[in-house]
Amino acid sequence: MASSMAHESLREPEVIAQRIKLLSQPHISPLTRYTETLSQRTSEVPYFDPLDGGCQAKVLVLLESPAKLASRPRFVSRDNPVPAQRNLKRFLHDAGLPHRHSVLWNVYPWLPEPTHGERRPLTRHDIDRGIGELPALLGLLPELRVIVLAGRTSQRVLPKLERLASPCLILTMPHPSPLAVCVSPDVEAKIVKTLTQAAQVAAQP
């Protein structure tokens, strides 16, 4: 089923409904419970994409925070209809990092409040809140080999992550947003190179 749905966009309600039906699958259900518990205890967070590797993922790509979209429920997914995720989907494809080997999440996982104004920048307190939720997440990813920190904000967790996630390989790359990518052709090359390294580690027996 994953292969037939892999090119769909989460812009369409019927596609979202299909993903919701998959959230109880064995590979993703512990992560579904994690997100639901987090939402009940604090504020709403998106679901992990059930087309990804879930608890069997070998690569965790840590982005910064969920995009400001009105749709609910939401997923952290390469299929989200926003520019950064469209770029990331292309880069993951170019790097040969398939759904089954990867899972996406955000350092600050909470969805923004629906407002008409600009979203405020993340604070040190926000980042610390997100870091506080990572140990429980890492405990649900027993096959994890690589963590990729995408963007400067996510890379602020590097010192603490080195202690939490040993012996995982931790890589850094620029954020896949158009603003970051358009700075230089080297940015896209750096992203694909980093994801290719992660894919190679994930593919090792």
**Tally of strands:** 6
Going by CATH, what is the homologous superfamily?
Answer: Uracil-DNA glycosylase-like domain
First and last CA, distance: 25 Å
Derived from helix and strand composition plus strand pairing, the structural class reads alpha/beta
Q: Number of helical segments?
A: 9
Instruction: Give unreliable regions as ranges.
Output: 1-5
Instruction: Identify the overall geometry.
Output: globular
Overall number of structural domains = 1
CATH architecture: 3-Layer(aba) Sandwich
Order of helices and strands: HHHEEEHEHEHHEHH
User: What is the helical fraction, as a range of percent?
Assistant: 40-55%
Rg, rounded, reads 16 Å
CATH topology, anyone?
A: Uracil-DNA Glycosylase, subunit E
Strand content: 5-15%
Numbering strands along the chain, what is their spatial order in the largest sheet?
A: 4-2-5-6
Compute the average pLDDT. 90
3D structure, described in words:
There is one protein chain. The chain is of the alpha/beta class and 205 residues long. The protein has a single domain, classed as Uracil-DNA glycosylase-like domain (Uracil-DNA Glycosylase, subunit E). Helices cover 43% and strands 12% of the residues. The chain contains nine helices and six strands. It has a four-stranded parallel sheet, sandwiched between helices. The longest helix is centred in the last third of the chain and has 19 residues, at 185-203. The protein is globular and about 40 Å long. It starts with a helix and ends with a helix. The relative contact order is 0.16. Mean pLDDT is 90; it is low at 1-5.
